[in-house]
Amino acid sequence: MINIRDLSYEELEEMLLQMGEKKYRAKQIYVWLYKGIESFDEMTDISKELIQKLKDHFILNQITLIDFQKSKDGTIKYLFGLNDGHAIESVLMKYKYGYTACISNQIGCKMGCNFCASAKIGFVRNMTHGEIVGQILKVQKESGETISNVVFMGIGEPLDNYDNVMKAIRIMNDPKGLNIGARHISISTSGVVPKIYELADRQMQCTLSVSLHSSNNAKRSEMMPVNKGYPIEELIKACKDYIKVTNRRISFEYA
C-alpha cells in the first residue's frame, strides 16, 4: 500500500478522482496530513465512507519514538523507528528565533567521511519524502513545539537523495503543508558538485552549507572520499555559481 504522505498534492488529487471522489477533498486531507495526525480517524470533517476508502488504499507512515536524550540546554535527540524496522535520528534545538529540527534523509550514508558516525552504518537506502517530512511532524508532536527552521544535517547526504529531498522541501514550503519558508531551510552537503549546480538552477532560496574541513585536496580526500571525484577547485567553482544564480550566501562547515 502507498504511504499517503509520499503523494504530492497533485498526485493525491488524481488518486481521489480515481476513487470516485471530488477533487476538492484533496485539500481537506492534505491539511490534516501536515497537522501531524497519526490515524485517518482523526480527520473530523471527512465522511466515514471516505475515511474507509483512505484506509483501504493508503497507509499513514508511522514514525515511532524509540528513545530520546535531553541535554541541559534543552536540545533533544530523538531515535525514531520507521515502518521497515530501520531507525534514524532527529534533533530539536531551541534558539532565540524559534525551534530548529535537524533531520535525516538517508538510512546510513555512502560518503564515507572519516569523522562522521553515519559512515560506520554504511548505506542502506534513501528515505522517502514522506519519511523526511514525517520526522518534523513527529518532533513537533513529541515536543509540543512548532518547528520554524529545518537543517538537513542528520544522517545521509541530501544531494545524494536529491529528488526526495526536493519533494520534502516543497511540502515544507507549501502553506497547505508545513509553511516553512525556504530561507529557513539549510541543506548541508559534503560537496556533490553536479547537484549544487542543479540546486542553483531551481532558485529555491534555501541556505547551502558545505562541509569543507580542509583547504588541501590531499588532506580533504583522506577525510572525505567525495573530494576524489569533486576536488576543492570544482567545489568552489560550483559554490560561486550558486551564489551568482541565487544571490544567497553559502555557509562553510569546518572542524
Q: Main traits of this protein?
A:
globular; two-stranded parallel ribbon; single chain
Summarize the biggest pleated sheet.
8 strands, mixed
Record field, number of beta strands: 12
Structure classification: alpha/beta
Question: What portion of residues is helical?
Answer: 25-40%
How many separate helices?
10
Q: Indicate the low-confidence ranges by residue numbers.
A: none
Alpha-carbon distance between the termini?
43 Å
Q: Rg from C-alpha positions?
A: 19 Å
Percent strand equals 15-25%
Q: What is the multimeric organization of the chains shown? A: single chain
Question: Which series of helices and strands comes N to C?
Answer: EHHHEEEEEEHEHEHEHEHHHE
Strand order of the largest sheet: 3-4-5-6-9-10-11-12
Descriptive report:
The mean pLDDT is 95. It is globular, with a radius of gyration of 19 Å. Helix content is 38%, strand content 22%. The chain has helices spanning 9-18, 25-33, 48-57, 118-121, 129-143, 162-173, 193-202, 217-223, 226-229, 232-246, and strands spanning 2-3, 58-59, 64-70, 76-81, 87-95, 98-102, 106-107, 125-126, 147-152, 185-189, 207-211, 250-253. It is of the alpha/beta class and 255 residues long. Strands 3-4-5-6-9-10-11-12 form an eight-stranded mixed beta sheet, covered by helices on one side. The chain has a two-stranded parallel sheet with strand order 1-2. The chain contains ten helices and twelve strands.
Can I get a quick summary?
With 255 residues, the protein is α/β, with parallel strands linked by helices.
